[in-house]
Amino acid sequence: MDPYVLRTLNEERRARRAAVLVTDLGDGRDRIVREGDAVAGDLGAAIASAFRTGNSRSVEAEGRTFFLNAHLPRPRLVVIGAVHISQALAPMARIAGYPVEIIDPRTAFATPERFPDVALHAEWPQDVLTRAPLDSYTALAAVTHDPKIDDFALKAALDAKCFYVGALGSRKTHAKRVERLLALGAGADQIGRIHAPIGLDIGAASPAEIAVAVLAQTIHAFRSRGLEAKGAVA
Amino acid sequence: MDESIYLDETRDPLIIAEGWMKDGKDVAIATVVETWGSAPRPVGSHLVIDAEGNFHGSVSGGCVEGAVVTEAMDVIGSGKARMLEFGVADETAWQVGLSCGGRIKVYVERLG
């Protein structure tokens, strides 16, 4: 392995950016491919698949054998609102492989008794997200119903290109939210990325069922990253 | 279940390999590149080895690490990468096997 390649790979991994290490198993030469880098042909298709699935494997391309080691940051889910839905969502998401952080400045809601074993911040999203910024391997679900708490986080999630952005509320509530986000400087394309009403349409009624719908939508968004542009996902 | 979303700098094999390199050590990196059956560690897993035989990480959960470390010392010496195969069915080339019945292919290369 090229020392420079190792240093670069570790830099990317520390910064929570995805990278695929491509090693030619014939001559040992290696290089780093970052998400979005253009690679042509069969090798390019295999690399794109490695980014999407996170699976590492050997591939035959151009008459050579390459090993693709996919280094994807661990996805995480940030939930704005220490509410009933979040109480169900946190353990479910953790089991599915999406560690959860919950942010809610209302100290009556954000208590360790209501959220045992969850990373919980009884603070404003502004403060928490400045310390630990959102990124493209983070999903954000805003479920407080309170614009004072949700709006900043939603705008921050859109700006950080979070792989999933969902907001609780009816279509009417969302229409008002869109106006506020536009006033905050969000673009129309950004607004289009918000999942609202939140969650896959499974007819969820209880808070726990809504949590299932949100988690399913988060997983779908994660596993279809990069496919939207090609129209491969409905 | 490991739940941290950040790298564990004290345990991550590739971070440790970079640290060893900065300390001027000779280092080999072993990577699981293929598995068949019930292999204990997934494709992409690393074992990193220095010239004194210190190692971090794992490629099999303990079954074949000893053999990989021995091979890695040769790779550090020669600079030539090697492909190793381990499995219960493969008795010709290797004395060590995977008790789980799986087979793995491990690529061992020198850093630099």
The shape of chain A is elongated
Which chains make the largest contact? A-B, 25 and 25 residues
Strand order of the largest sheet of chain A: 7-6-5-8-9-10
Averaged pLDDT of chain A, please? Answer: 94
Q: Element order, helices and strands of chain A? A: HEEHEEEHEEHEHEHHEH
What is the level 1 CATH name of the largest domain in chain A?
Answer: Alpha Beta
- What is the strand content of chain B? 25-35%
Total number of strands of chain B: 5
Summarize the biggest pleated sheet of chain A. Answer: 6 strands, parallel
The rounded distance between the terminal residues' Cα atoms of chain A is 41 Å
Helix count, DSSP H or I runs of 4 or more residues of chain A: 8
The biggest beta sheet of chain B reads: 5 strands, antiparallel
Quote the beta fraction of chain A.
15-25%
Give start-end ranges of low-pLDDT stretches of chain B.
none
Description:
Chain A has helices spanning 3-14, 41-53, 84-96, 125-131, 147-159, 171-183, 188-191, 207-223; strands at residues 19-24, 30-34, 57-61, 64-71, 76-80, 100-103, 119-121, 138-142, 164-167, 194-195. With 234 residues, chain A is of the alpha/beta class. Chain A has two domains: 3-71, no CATH class; 76-223, Rossmann fold (3-Layer(aba) Sandwich). In chain A, the strands form two sheets. A six-stranded parallel beta sheet of chain A has the order 7-6-5-8-9-10, with helices on both faces. Chain A has a four-stranded antiparallel beta sheet with strand order 2-1-4-3, sandwiched between helices. Mean pLDDT of chain A is 94; it is low at 229-234. Chain B has 112 residues and is α+β, with helices and mostly antiparallel strands. Chain B has one domain (13-110). Chain B has two helices and five strands, in the order αβββαββ. Chain B has helices at 13-22, 65-78, and strands spanning 27-36, 46-50, 55-57, 82-87, 103-110. In chain B, strands 3-2-1-5-4 form a five-stranded antiparallel beta sheet, sandwiched between helices. Chain B starts with 12 loop residues before the first helix and ends with a strand. The mean pLDDT of chain B is 86.
